[in-house]
Write a structure and sequence with these properties.
The protein has 270 residues and is mostly beta strands. It has one domain: Pectate Lyase C-like (3 Solenoid).
């Protein structure tokens, strides 16, 4: 509960500061104007006193989707060539007693399998942390929910859904479809080949798209922020808002971005 109260207070304070920035200090082209207020998620990481590992191995079988709920840790994800779903969870806490009361719950619902941290009391879970290392068969749908941590994705093939807050996200290589809902974090999406829908608030988003057959169709709105990059866009600017449309080749694959109070860079590489 303590973390939730602190988070709410921080959200309210930052929202107020950004509102004052836009209301009383507007200047320059809305497409290029940097917000006067910046924040960083850097700093020394919390060092856990005790930790334990829990491993899960599942044949893919009828599973088509995976849900991982992260908290105060790192989620590492990559696609693998075999048909085994492998999950390693690392739980950490401040005491041996607290660690004994924590575990990873594996839940199967139809074709979906889910992994989450559970404990005997809500406060115990909120003040502990969990990291995941996941290797999933190519073609699966994966959803990652992460708060106060990091997400690292490498060479992923399939459908990826990221729901993150106060987290740094790095994707290096994706073939398929990607959807991201992010707030108060940094996104670095590189080597993306496929449709993308990105919703971001109070963050920095860098998107590198790789050329693909059919090309891309761009639909981008940035409110109270900055839009940069070499994507083929026609931009209309109004007070504190940039609207951009465009396409490459036939414009088959949609790239939809909605951002507020942030910085967005979209590049297309051959």
């Amino acid at each position: 509960m303590k973390i939730r109260r602190i988070t709410l207070a921080v959200l309210l304070l930052i929202t107020l500061l950004f509102a004052l920035d836009v209301r009383y200090f507007p200047k320059g082209d809305p497409a290029q104007r940097e917000p006067s207020i910046h924040f960083s998620l850097g700093g020394p990481p919390r060092i856990p006193l005790v930790q334990k590992e829990v491993d899960f191995v599942q044949p893919q079988g009828a599973f088509t989707s995976l849900l991982i709920e992260g908290h105060l840790g790192t989620v590492d994800l990559k696609s693998v060539d075999d048909d085994q779903l492998r999950i390693k969870a690392i739980i950490w806490a401040d005491s041996d007693h607290g660690l004994e009361l924590l575990n990873v719950l594996e839940t199967v619902s139809g074709s979906e399998v889910r992994y989450a941290l559970v404990g005997e009391a809500e406060d115990l879970v909120q003040n502990a942390g969990i990291s995941f290392v996941a290797g999933v068969p190519a073609g699966m749908e994966v959803t990652i929910e992460q708060a106060f941590g990091e997400v690292q994705v490498e060479d992923f093939v399939g459908f990826l859904n990221l729901e993150t807050s106060f987290s740094n996200v790095q994707v290096d290589g994706l073939q398929g479809t990607m959807r991201v809902a992010n707030s108060f974090g940094e996104l670095d999406l590189r080597g993306i080949r496929g449709p993308l829908r990105l919703e971001d608030a109070y963050g920095t988003s860098r998107v590198q798209l790789l050329s693909m057959d059919g090309g891309y169709n761009f639909d981008i709105e940035v409110a109270n922020g900055v839009l940069l990059g070499n994507a083929p866009l026609q931009m209309d600017t109004a007070r504190n808002k940039v609207t951009a449309f465009g396409q490459s080749d036939q414009g088959v694959h949609p790239i939809v971005i909605r951002s507020s109070y942030g910085r967005v860079t979209v590049n297309v590489e051959e």
